[in-house]
Amino acid sequence: MDVQSTGRSLRLGGRRSRALLAVLLLHHGRTVPIDTITGAIWPGEPPNSALANIRTYVHELRRQLHRLDDGAQRLTSHPGGYRILVRPGELDVLNFRALVGAGERAVRNADHDGAAECFGRALRMWRGSPAEGLDVGQALTAKLTVLEEERWSAASALVDAQLALGRHEQVIPRLREILAERPLCERTWGRLMMALSGAGRAAEALEVYQQARRRLLEELAVEPGGELRSVHSAILNGSAGPLPLYAPAPGAAPARAMAPAPCDLPTRPPDFVGREYLLGELRRIAASQSDAVAERANATVVSVFGPAGVGKTATVVNAAYQMRPLFPDGQLFVSFGSATGAPRATGEVMLELLAALGLPQSAIPVDEHQQTAVYRAMVAERAMLIVLDDVADAVQIRPFLPGAGRSMALITSRPPLVELDVHERFALPPLSGTESLQLLAALAGRGQVDAEPEEAVRVVEACDRLPLALRIVGARLTAGTTASLSAMAHRLADHSRRLDELVVGDLSVRTRLTESYRALDPVARSAFERLASSGTSRVSSSTLRTELGIPERTADRVLEELVHHHFLVPAETRGLGRVHRIPELLRAYGRALRRRETAVVPVREAADTVLLV
Known about the structure:
Layout: E1 4-5, E2 8-9, H1 15-26, E3 32-33, H2 34-41, H3 50-65, E4 75-78, E5 81-84, H4 92-108, H5 112-124, H6 138-164, H7 168-181, H8 186-198, H9 202-220, H10 226-236, H11 276-291, E6 300-305, H12 312-323, E7 331-335, H13 346-356, H14 368-380, E8 385-391, H15 394-397, E9 408-413, E10 424-427, H16 433-444, H17 446-451, H18 453-462, H19 467-479, H20 485-492, H21 498-501, E11 503-504, E12 507-508, H22 509-518, H23 522-533, H24 541-548, H25 552-564, E13 569-574, E14 577-581, H26 584-596, H27 603-612
Parallel strand pairs: 6-9, 6-10, 7-8, 8-9
Antiparallel strand pairs: 1-2, 3-5, 4-5, 11-12, 13-14
């Protein structure tokens, strides 16, 4: 840490004052909350006098910064925190990034001389590690880790530019230094092999391959990847080596020196229909976030929720493709569901996202809290769209919500996750009747729907207008397993076998409903089964008290639970209370459960047990 004025270093005080300055500079132009400052200055438990100490450090820093030539008030107080003013050209981190950006533009224009000059100047600004000698907390450590990653990327880009210029001998020492820092990076091993081969030292290049292979086997128990093997084969065959690693092929567009923006979105739904309002709202929010200034305090978090099979993933993926131009730094997609139906572990998902962001395995912290801090710091530097799909609860999702920056997190879940702080929350209902018929026509063929319009309406209503159920019907009709719409309508009319018909391949309405059912508590499960098996068409809190014989407080809680997980949906409003109904597919599911139960705990007994616990 060093601040200079007219060639002289200012006295910055002790480690705590320097840590304060570091966290302010790394959030330059933004108000840094007191909690963030406290966590950066004291890695462990802060003292009781933390706030008073911070004020003392701020006072001393203000006194020193006042000695800068312009005499401006550089360190200002704001509600809840402090902000530091940095002018263009004053902060080495910004100067470094500006030079790297100029180098990237030079690479895109095939100006390798210019790129090498820019990347070289950027790297010469480094003096050891960022904030060297300071004992800082997790939030600041994460930002410093991102800076180290940027330095490593710039060093790799400089090597690429020099290799493209044929400066093979010049880059060999630098490549060996990089490998000393990151001995498991196969790309760097490949660059060293090509540099040696280009310098006429093919035998040494082949020995380097053996060194790399031994290292990978010892450390990771894996063989070299395809890229490194291809370099080895090219040297064995006496060719100049696969140039696309560091230079564009003749006549091709220039390659980007830095890693390309990731796009992990799944395949766009080919037969998507409807949802125009929600798609328009998501585009509006994304455009607003994209237009925000770089110093925007928070990323945007949007939640889309709805019942199983309603098409949440398809809708959000379709929206993500439309919004790609608004998030040039990449689009990430991760699903929290699994083939077994159990939610994926948080640590597993975090490792997946860090890898997608380009963080090498060797640089990922072991501690999960540090992983979260690194993830948020990396996202804060970019404008990214992050789709977090099939989220089970708020606890599962909190570590993945970005903080600062211009990114946007788009969450899908069955429950509304009301305990989660989001900017906007959208409920996704079943398709309208017209949209359902459009989807069925797109899946099964317009001819079938036009030929049997009344039967098509019966099929759509039997499917509760759920896209998942309609896709299953369309697949069965297309495959010829069911002769016609009228035959399918006849089969679906049998309530006891309806769910048996809504299965094709790995798509099953019953499986999705079972996942939602398992999320209910025991009291709500028992209540749902009894309601589904009864003739009750309208459900309210009073209905639950009368039909099931449970106390008012228990009835209110059960009603809230069933509505929360979409086992009950609004039907109409009477006075001050809301009346609900059970969708037909869920009623069929509940009746099937009731039939299979040989011994069911009475609802009153289950309620008493839960309330006592």
